[in-house]
Specification:
Chain lengths: 307, 307, 307, 307
């Protein structure tokens, strides 16, 4: 597949907003897992584009840079999400099919996937690194335990995955009646249609797609898929995308870490419990650590006796 | 408009899931503001439908009722939103145009609005109750102050709104060259097209629509629009819809109040500040108030020394 | 999986609109392929609900039944799609994973899929009927040829698919270290996590989901997936859904066949070519076959000399 | 509002794909109606980006330019819409509120609208050009007749619209208790909140927003809103956007004109009628005018006797 190579790119002149740090890695493959990657192929907007869109809403004139940061924090904290939708990114992703199946559940994105009805899939399948082969978690129905498998069991796992993957591909070629160079394997046979032969492949085979999404929905994707409860194999993609966000829109990145990734969401019962554990006299001691708005909000949440 | 009357309804037999308490108010107008209303005209699913969909995902057999409640709490707390999308509701809403303009920003819904290109709008406009006419808030750029206007200024406000609304409607009729009974006002004139005449009306005129939305997106709508920062006039609709949710899916309602409406979302800085205000010895005292999972989570958030 | 059984259903009383013919098959499994099915588990609205929503837009009073049909035809022909969004359906679907991968590309739907991170997949895989095993089409890069494979090649295909599927499942159990009754296969081993073991399965394994969609988007799905260019295995699902539409909203069904399925969309060049092939004198002969609007439209398209 | 000025723009260097003709008009206001405009503020992708995304799907290598055009035609004709979603555009639009109300019904777009809760609206309202003031159409319930109003009636219409608009604004200022320079009108009064005062304005007042949409959905918007049945005032915006498309993605533009704007969609009955009007012998005469695929398709549609 020719799309895999680093893209021949030239410098153009544009009047559009640019993100200097993202430009530096544009089209570069960021390798993930054993054969996967992401590479950014296009983007629209930067931190300033968000500020600009927000100021259309608020009707204010342009302010200096320090205020841009504050405005982005304000938007993030109060979940004013529409300005973040004003930035868009397009990435080329190569990923195992079982990861693609989780990924595609995020509906607010545009996708062009490589079609195995049109083309023959390459012989590339995912084998986990031994460090990531683990037992079923006992208390998390959808997770893995840490490091409790014997070296032998890990090796046996890899042997099974590898031999099944290879055998399925060998039979895929038999069903197509084509070898890797596109020649007939057996002159007396026709081979079956590509759309049917592919069903013999296992879920660890790689596929690839172009994926385009706005920044708000990208952050939502990352917050769900970079979470410790997400399956390891999709988490590495989400974390790589988080690194991209850091280059692309650095203010948004900081704000996202503060108000989403490291935030805590407490239920009513937890708020009530916490109230009983806090000495209200200590609010004043926190004045040095918090800005006035955040302090006032804390008091509002945790002042004694809520109805 | 004939749609406004309470709908002639009959009892039918169905094998579908029903919500007994919502059936009782089906088609009934719930009056809001001076001329507005909502009335539920159809719905799909109930608390059990959410549980059933979730159990397709988890592949578990049906459990007893007490567990349904726990599962719904689990889904709500962990933002597993797809099962809530399995319920759907359709409401007929009559609302001022300026409220409709805010409402329509919620894109994940289906809408059929009354068209003033096809039909002539009724002479119905919104006048705020004196208790809700207030000055611009000083510290909230998008809000109202509480009760600081003189009786005279409130009266003057109502006089202006009323006389302008009436005059605009009178001119609307002149532009159409039609009186309320559909007769020509002036035999020597044609009248202009409805789609053009309507532009002379003010934003407090009422429109109406059918609005259909899934439960997940309805809760999102309510959480934004029943918020104290939302404009009063849309808040009354959001609160009425929250009452509908309580009748329709009572377990979801309770869960939504616990994990959304009365929840607190803290930034990383607030978490850090709170850590310094808490005596860790008191965690054990809260065992009676919190279930074990929520207590463990609190400890995880607020245990001393985050990296 | 308990969800597969026909659902225990009772008759309830409701004031909601019902679709009598759809009620008759509610919860019944409609078998598709070798192990798949669809079964309708809930619905909202009927032909009248569409008419009612349209009349909110047009502000007209309720008319008699014969006019309902005309109005639905009008909406379908002129692609006034919002009234069709006022109906909603929920189906439980069991389908091979490679079909699920095509299906999920339709984004405007709600989905709860069985998760192989939580549960162990059943040993059920798709084997095509010999009549549907065909060679790659020569002139359609994504299709199958008709009937050109020898009986031996068909048999060889089935042997490969069957033996690979079975072997992958056997190894899936080894990876989990569990037999079909849930007992350990080997007491000295832990077994690996379900989320990882599943990647050894082939794309013809069955999954299942609850799928909820509005009527407009369902018709769009059907028009794309019941098309002769769609892969046979998804086409059978689309055709079964078309049968459901016929029971649910019979007027919409007729209208859909007339204005979508059997419609012809012509490019500008094709219109120009057709003009030269038509004798304008024959328009009048068609008056008996077409209603006046459709005839006028034909004249407009094919009158000599377009600019 | 500072956003209205032409944006101070600099030339940057980028590795992204560019559209040279669109760059030329970037940030330039294109005036529409009496006070409105659109101006493109950002874009992503060009004709080649669509081709590139399509070729990810089809797995083919890059071909020469002449084939790009053919591929775009193929995608447009067969409604393979996802590659067109790979381009995105952002426009700043100033438009009357009644136009905004129609526009916003297109849900698959991102919007940041100027908020009259935060800011005071300018005194700018739409008055139609005399040439576009017309009577209600007799046979089109949602349209205007051509030129049948007397000069006097047109003048009277403008007088009403103008005087009402001005009076409503004067009262808007009274309600706010602020003059144009931001000073109190009456020292003894507070003025009411902005969010409430605005409801006194008429629907012809201008608002503005940033609007971001992908190319596929933009074309859908244009096909509905540049249609002769659309209201004149939104049509001028749709037509201006079509001109933008022509600059941005010229191949797509040509294809869109051929397969959408000048296409004809025929019902089954119309196809049947047309069959009887065509002399099949004439198909061969059209070989010079149509490419082979389009000719074959015509034969398939119009060959005698369909079942």
């Amino acid at each position: 597949m020719t799309q895999e190579g680093n893209f021949p790119h030239e410098e153009h002149s544009t009047k559009r907003a640019i993100s200097p740090d993202l430009e530096k890695i544009l089209y570069n493959k960021i390798p993930l897992l054993d054969h996967g990657f992401i590479r950014v192929v296009d983007y629209m907007g930067n931190d300033s584009a968000i500020v600009q869109a927000a100021r259309v809403s608020y009707g204010q004139g342009t302010k200096q840079v320090s205020q841009d940061k504050g405005l982005i924090n304000y938007l993030m904290k109060h979940r004013h999400t529409t300005p973040f939708e004003m930035c868009e990114i397009k990435v080329h992703v190569k990923l195992p099919i079982f990861v693609a199946r989780q990924w595609i559940r995020h509906r607010t994105a545009n996708v062009n996937e490589h079609s195995a009805r049109y083309s023959i899939l390459d012989k590339e399948f995912y084998l986990p690194d031994p460090a990531h082969i683990s037992a079923q978690s006992k208390n998390n129905k959808q997770g893995r335990e840490q490091n409790i498998l014997s070296t032998q069991e890990i090796k046996a796992t890899l042997d099974i995955l590898k031999s099944n993957s290879e055998q399925c591909y060998e039979n895929y070629e038999k069903l197509l009646n084509l070898d890797q160079t596109g020649h007939l394997l057996d002159e007396t046979k026709q081979g079956i249609a590509r759309e049917l032969a592919r069903i013999n492949l296992t879920l660890n085979y790689y596929t690839q797609w172009y994926w385009k999404i706005d920044l708000h929905n990208l952050l939502h994707f990352i917050s769900l898929r970079a979470d410790p409860h997400a399956q390891y194999e999709i988490r590495v993609y989400a974390e790589a995308l988080l690194d991209v966000v850091k280059l692309w829109v650095p203010y948004v990145y900081e704000s996202f870490m503060e108000y989403r990734i490291h935030a805590a969401s407490l239920s009513r019962s937890q708020v009530e419990a916490l109230k009983k554990m806090i000495d209200p006299a200590k609010f004043s001691e926190q004045e040095a650590n918090l800005n006035i708005r955040e302090l006032e909000e804390l008091k509002r949440f945790f002042a004694k006796k809520q109805e």
